[in-house]
Design a protein that fits this description.
Oligomer: single chain
Structural class: mainly alpha
Distance between the termini: 17 Å
Number of domains: 1
Number of strands: 0
Strand content: under 5%
Length: 90
Amino acid sequence: MSSQQLTLARNLIRIKPSLIWYSKAYDQLSIESIAEAVFNYGTWQEFLKLKDILGIKSLARTFTKLNEMPRSNLLPIYRNYFRHYFEHYA
């Protein structure tokens, strides 16, 4: 992932700060925390914007990384949905 992609993803959070309400340090957010917020709390349009920024393969790898963590904050309903989504489209 390029630094430009990370900057665009961080700007997505800047536009919609309610996705990550626990931090105002947007320049220090990792792509994992941005993706997790969009998966859990974002709208479908925000997901599509993130997919356009990162690409479906990169976003699928990020989801897999989040999904395989022993302790993840992904909500079960979205974990299931996006697992099926990425299995089908990525």
